[in-house]
Amino acid sequence: MALLEIEDLTVEFYTEEGVVTAVEDLSYRIERGEKFGVVGESGAGKSVTALSVMRLIESPGRIASGEIRFKGEDVLGMSEREVRDLRGQEIAMVFQDAQTALNPVYTVGEQIAEAIRHHLDYDDREARERTIQLLDEVGIPEAETRYSDYPHEFSGGMQQRAIIAMALSCEPDLLICDEPTTALDVTIEAQILDLIEELADEFDVAVQLITHDLGVIAKVCDRVMVMYAGKPVEKAPVEELYYDPKHPYTVGLMSSIPRVGDRRERLQTIPGTMPDLVGLPPGCSFHPRCPYAEEVCTLEEPPLLDPETGAEASGLGEASEHTAACLEYAGALEDGLDYEVEIRNSESEPRAPQGGQR
Ligand SMILES: Nc1ncnc2c1ncn2[C@@H]1O[C@H](COP(=O)(O)OP(=O)(O)OP(=O)(O)O)[C@@H](O)[C@H]1O
């Protein structure tokens, strides 16, 4: 049994424009201690997926169908009280904006200590000691003194460290990080990613890392799911995704991995934008932006397939599996996919493939 199992999850929002299917038939699993990345452009459904796991989807949204199991327990069937315990003690979440997660009127230390007192049976002194220890572990210098600082006295990076300390304070088994470094500059981003990686190993906590940046996933994760318009389009162990991407959308994302110091607009190499989720294009949702699309792509919607055998992926899939939702692997494209992956071994990080031209 995996730590987290999501099966055929569909989440809808009832808006004035119509029903928005933000997530559709999504399945994935996260093993204990695994670092799992979810990547895709804005609006792909990454945050909605994470909020569903925490049962935090609010009106006008609802989980229309599917199953969510955490340690085998049916999350959607839990009482409110059970869900609160799940959020406090088993799954913690770190958001992009540390400022909104910290209350400006309490000191940083008090806020973390309060979370510890609330979730674990610690008295005031123990909670304070544990907080100082945690602040130290997340790399806040002079943790004892900084305990009494207010959030505004912390830099953005320090605030995010404090939030991570708070998230870890109740010893969760899963830490969901939703764009944890988007608001930070590149150097601080790298430090926070290192921290998340170190702490995941030290605290033996699984991580679901959500980002629009494949470079971030490469640094931290073991396995990755690429999402497009509410659906998974590719799932693979991270190295395989980098060296042998199978979906044209993934190739486009990789071509736009920014290099250090490069703040250009990301994803500029994939022309077009995510489709309107109220009226998704027929067939493959990516076909209007895909350089390899053929007529069949406007007619048929590809499921996740094994690129080698063309077999349809079953439900949650195996952790080692590499699958992609492209009709090429059903043998349906006449001209095939025509891109090459360029690997430069002189670089320490895997490099982007070069998208091919027709
Ligand atoms: N409260 C809401 N009301 C209506 N639609 C919503 C709401 N929240 C999300 N959606 C819909 O769900 C889609 C997916 O949103 P989601 O926040 O999961 O995307 P994302 O991949 O996390 O993007 P980002 O990187 O911008 O956070 C949105 O484009 C929007 O259409």
UniProtKB/TrEMBL annotation:
Pfam families given in the database record: ABC_tran, oligo_HPY
Membrane topology: Peripheral membrane protein
CDD domains in UniProt: ABC_NikE_OppD_transporters
Single GO molecular function: ATP binding
GO biological process, one term: peptide transport
Record's GO cellular component terms: plasma membrane
ABC transporter domain ranges (all copies): 4-254
Alphabetized UniProt keyword annotations: ATP-binding, Cell inner membrane, Cell membrane, Membrane, Nucleotide-binding, Translocase, Transport
Subcellular location(s) of the protein: Cell membrane
Record NCBIfam families: oligo_HPY
Name recorded for this polypeptide: Putative ABC transporter ATP-binding protein
Organism classification: Archaea, Methanobacteriati, Methanobacteriota, Stenosarchaea group, Halobacteria
